Each structure stands twice: as C-alpha cells, then as structure tokens.
C-alpha cells in the first residue's frame, strides 16, 4: 500500500495528488487511509520517508562499503542509470519535494534539508577518506568538494526530468569526477 502511495505522489506531486488518486492506486478506502495515516500530508510524509529509506539511504549504505573514490563513482553511476531509465520522467521524489512542498511547509523543509545533509555527509566522508589515502585530490577542501558533488547530484536529477540524455548527464558528472582525481587542467582545456 505504501509503495502505491509513493508511486502516486512521486509521479503526480503532492499538490496534484488527490485522496481519490490515493484510493485508486492503493485500493484502500479513504476512511482506511485516514485511519492508517491521518491526513494527506501525513500520508505524503510517510511516502517520502519510505522513498528516502528505499532509495537514498539504501544507495548510501551500498556505496559506503566501497573504497572512497569508488563509492562516489558508484553513487553517480546508479544515479545516471536511474535517471536514464526513468521513462515516466518522475525524477527524484526528494528533489521533487524540495521544489514542490518544502518552500511552503517548514516540516518538509526540515525533512528535505536533513536528507540533503546526510547525502553531503556521505560525500564528505568519502572525500576526506580519499584525500587521506591519496585517491582524491587535496587541491580543494573536502567540504568544498562534497558541496560541489551535492550540487551536481541535484542538477542531474532536475535535468533528467526534462532532458534525460546520456551525453548531457554524463557530461555533467564527468568533470566532477575528474576534479576529484585532480584532473582540473584537463577540464578547463577542453
């Protein structure tokens, strides 16, 4: 049932999703939905939490098991694969929430901010470890690189909604990975 609610909100957005849509997609009556979750906002929160746990948090856990530079590369490989395979152009439910709901709802602003901080912390831990073992350049501070990676991630997920083109998305990721490798001169010379 929660998976169906995630898909409904993810494909339509919070505002465009009605309780009727949720009833249709979940197969549960409106009364049962309200009894189980409360109002539409509470259903959306539960759906967003479920999405984050099954997507973002799961990806971070898998990638944390890899060497630092490989972890960042694998993270972006998964993002590219997911973005290019999104035939319905749903994008990322977290990014959608950041654009659609968070600006108008302090509770969702806090949720989105916390998840983005977790992603940034993952990048920061990888960059620090990679700088320590020599697999990531020390030409920029770890915090600067981790914030850059977060921005690249957000950009990819937004671009993929309107232009899910391999060349475009790989062209956004490649310079960032080259920057980690200390290949800044190759980036600017092209």
Structural description of this entry:
This protein has 190 residues and is mostly helical. The chain has helices at residues 2-12, 19-26, 30-37, 40-64, 68-84, 93-100, 106-133, 142-162, 166-180, 184-188. The protein is elongated and about 60 Å long. 28% of the residues are buried. Mean pLDDT is 93; it is low at 185-190.
Reconstruct the topology from this structure.
Elements: H1 2-12, H2 19-26, H3 30-37, H4 40-64, H5 68-84, H6 93-100, H7 106-133, H8 142-162, H9 166-180, H10 184-188
Helix pairs in contact: 1-2, 1-4, 4-5, 4-7, 5-7, 5-8, 5-9, 6-7, 7-8, 8-9
Features:
190 residues, mainly alpha, Tetracycline Repressor, domain 2, 10 helices, 77% helix, 0% strand, elongated, disordered C terminus
CATH-defined topology: Tetracycline Repressor, domain 2
> Largest sheet, described in full?
none
Helix amount = over 70%
Structural class estimated from helices and strands: mainly alpha
- What is the count of helical runs? 10
- pLDDT below 50 for ≥5 consecutive residues: which ranges? 185-190
Mean pLDDT: 93
For this structure, what is the CATH class? Answer: Mainly Alpha
Q: Which strand-content bin applies to the residues?
A: under 5%
Report the count of strand segments. Answer: 0
CA-based gyration radius: 18 Å
Q: Whole-Å distance between the termini? A: 50 Å
The arrangement of helices and strands along the chain is HHHHHHHHHH
Domains, number: 1
CATH architecture: Orthogonal Bundle
């Amino acid at each position: 049932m929660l998976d169906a609610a995630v898909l409904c909100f993810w494909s339509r957005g919070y505002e465009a999703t009605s309780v009727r849509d949720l009833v249709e997609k979940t197969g549960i009556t409106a009364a049962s939905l309200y009894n189980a979750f409360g109002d539409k906002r509470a259903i959306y929160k539960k759906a967003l939490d479920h999405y984050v746990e099954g997507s973002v948090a799961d990806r971070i856990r898998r990638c944390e098991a890899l060497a630092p530079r490989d972890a960042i590369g694998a993270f972006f490989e998964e993002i590219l694969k997911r973005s290019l395979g999104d035939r319905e152009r749903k994008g990322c439910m977290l990014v959608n929430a950041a654009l659609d709901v968070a600006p108008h709802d302090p509770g969702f602003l806090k949720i989105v901010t916390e998840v983005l901080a977790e992603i940034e912390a993952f990048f920061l831990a990888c960059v620090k470890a990679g700088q320590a073992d020599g697999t990531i350049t020390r030409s920029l501070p770890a915090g600067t690189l981790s914030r850059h990676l977060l921005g690249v991630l957000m950009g990819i997920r937004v671009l993929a909604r309107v232009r899910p083109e391999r060349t475009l998305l790989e062209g956004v990721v490649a310079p960032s990975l080259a920057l980690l490798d200390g290949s800044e001169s190759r980036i600017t010379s092209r």
